[in-house]
Design a protein that fits this description.
Strand content: 15-25%
Bound molecules: guanosine-5'-diphosphate, magnesium ion
CATH topology of the largest domain: Rossmann fold
Distance between the termini: 57 Å
Strand order of the largest sheet: 6-5-7-4-8-9-10-11
Mean pLDDT: 83
Low-confidence stretches: 82-86
Shape: globular
Number of domains: 3
Order of helices and strands: EHEEHHHHHEHEHEEHEHEHEE
Length: 344
């Protein structure tokens, strides 16, 4: 039995290396993440170490080879899952969890003026490191003469990092569920989206107001359904759904520190089988807490992040921590309590 250990940058790289070195009869026996070392660990993604074996006995039997390929595929699926669970980059998660005052991105590490500006805008040190790494790799260690030119280059790096959320399939029924901590702005966001789908897009829309292990006391949702003449139900009601309906589901907030509540929500989501689960967070609270909330909810299958209370948070740079520090896309930003009001 031949054993090979490979170090890969990502899953695709691992697959390519295993195929090249061991062929299709390889079986992955172990996978682990190797964190970057030294200061680079603040922004570099961990590599992955994969140990794979190849059977000594070459077999001519098609079926045996097929089964080995099947095992390899299984192992690679496992590998993909292990890596994709890393929705929040480990280093940022550690920084976010820490109760210590946040380490700053030291000026001595670079000649660029950008880091100080980013710090004031709420970017986390690890994310600043990531950005500086990209800036210096692309444009060199020496910054341009003018700050305005630095900002222009920064804009280019940030726009490359932005992930556009997937478009919805408008040809079939869509079920959108809004989850998040209590009072994060889920119901107001839902009403803003409702007003948009009904008034701007003239789409057939319905709303369910559901309980979980707590009662949903939202009054604003039934009120707006009445104003907009949208079919509304407390609890499940499939009578007004057809193939083209957009169904918006309002759930009560969850005490995210209690894992039983998160588990209960998980069970509720399983029964509803939504097209999309939107996590709604209040952008005006501390980044460290936002990451803790995201961490708690990321046990569930979340499709995108949505931030409310943008009107109360001047440091919009905070949101870039979630673009660069996680694998999630940001779909909606909501700024204000008025409906339809500001929604981006
Ligand atoms: N300033 C501001 N207030 C908001 C925003 N979104 C919601 N709110 C307010 O935050 C409170 C909780 O909102 P709600 O949608 O009921 O939260 P839920 O418990 O997550 O459904 C209410 O008083 C809303 O008016 C926003 O974007 N900006
Ligand atoms: Mg609500």
């Amino acid at each position: 039995m031949e054993t090979v250990t490979i170090i890969a940058e990502n899953v695709a790289d691992a697959v390519a290396q295993i195929r090249a070195k061991l062929g299709p009869s390889a079986v992955v026996t172990n996978v682990r993440k190797i964190p970057a070392s030294g200061i680079t660990k603040l922004w570099q993604k961990p590599k992955i170490e994969v140990i794979a074996i190849k059977q000594d006995q070459p077999t001519n039997s098609d079926s045996s080879q097929q089964s080995e390929i099947a095992i390899l595929r299984q192992e690679l699926d496992f590998l993909k899952q292990t890596i994709s669970k890393n929705a929040i980059l480990d280093v940022l998660q550690d920084q976010a969890k820490s109760n210590q005052p946040q380490q700053t991105f030291s000026k001595t590490q670079t000649q660029w003026k950008i880091p100080r500006i980013l710090e004031d805008l709420g970017f986390m040190p690890g994310v600043i490191g990531l950005i500086m790494d990209r800036l210096e790799t692309t444009y060199g260690k020496d910054p341009p003469k003018l700050l305005s030119e630095e900002i222009l280059l920064l804009k280019q790096v940030l726009s490359k990092a932005w992930r556009t959320p997937e478009e919805f399939n408008t040809d079939s029924t869509q079920t959108h569920i809004f989850i998040g901590p209590m009072g994060s702005g889920k119901s107001v966001l839902l009403c803003k989206i409702l007003a948009r789908t009904v008034l701007c897009e003239s789409r057939k829309t319905g709303v369910w107001l559901m309980d979980t292990n707590t009662v949903n006391l939202s009054e604003i949702v039934p009120l707006y359904c009445e104003i907009l003449n949208v079919p509304f139900s407390r609890g499940k009601n499939e009578s007004f759904l057809d193939e083209q309906t957009i169904l918006l589901v309002d759930l009560p907030g969850v005490d995210w520190k209690d894992s039983n509540n998160i588990e209960f929500l998980n069970e509720t989501l399983k029964t509803l089988q939504p097209t999309s689960v939107h996590l709604v967070l209040n952008a005006s609270i501390e980044t460290r807490i936002l990451f803790a909330q995201l961490n708690a909810f990321s046990r569930l299958k979340i499709d995108d992040l949505n931030f409310t209370h943008i009107d109360e948070e001047p440091r919009w740079g905070k949101l870039w921590n979630f673009v660069l520090g996680t694998n999630f896309s940001i779909r909606w930003l909501s700024a204000g309590q008025n409906i339809p009001g500001q929604i981006f």
